[in-house]
């Protein structure tokens, strides 16, 4: 008999701590009055202008993301880097650069991870990418001996590099 007494005491204690139920209910008339009242967003709605028709966006036919990019592919997957981002392509890797996209498009990060065996990145500064500072001659000589495709990156992302032609020494006549 101790068990039912315990449950009765527990129920009594629980009801003592329970919140009072909400008894105020809104009437349909009050709801209609609230719905008809001006909203703080009404002023914003009045300021918005309705578009008469959809905006007509015109792009030149020559503007294409793929036309402005260099395609790298491994036969199964492909990715795009900006034109000018590929700094060096060895002869044996030329079929993997600049061809039509084949397979599945991957992000640069995923493609680089999957193809570290034949792609190497070269971190460049923003000034080097803009052509304001030259690329290091020693690095360019180093690339000539590499069997990997060298891609210019800035902060980990591919970036096109404006290559300035080497200055030719002035010939002085005597």
Automatic annotation (TrEMBL):
Its signal peptide is: 1-18
Region Disordered, residue ranges: 43-63
> Which controlled-vocabulary keywords does the entry list?
Signal
Q: Under which name does UniProt file this protein?
A: Peptidoglycan-binding protein CsiV
* Organism domain of life: Bacteria
């Amino acid at each position: 008999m101790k068990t039912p007494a315990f449950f009765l005491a527990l129920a009594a204690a629980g009801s003592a701590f329970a919140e009072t139920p909400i008894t105020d209910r809104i009437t349909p008339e009050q709801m209609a009055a609230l719905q008809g009242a001006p909203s703080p967003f009404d002023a914003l709605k009045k300021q918005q202008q309705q578009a008469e028709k959809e905006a007509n966006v015109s792009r030149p036919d020559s503007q294409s993301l793929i036309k402005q990019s260099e395609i790298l592919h491994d036969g199964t997957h492909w990715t795009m880097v900006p034109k000018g981002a590929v700094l060096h392509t060895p002869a044996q890797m030329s079929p993997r650069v600049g061809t039509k996209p084949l397979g599945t498009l991957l992000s640069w990060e995923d493609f680089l991870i999957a193809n570290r065996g034949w792609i190497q990145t070269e971190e460049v500064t923003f000034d080097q990418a803009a052509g304001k500072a030259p690329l290091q001659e020693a690095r360019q000589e180093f690339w000539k001996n590499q069997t990997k495709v060298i891609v210019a990156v800035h902060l980990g992302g591919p970036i096109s590099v404006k290559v300035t032609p080497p200055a030719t020494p002035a010939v002085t006549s005597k």
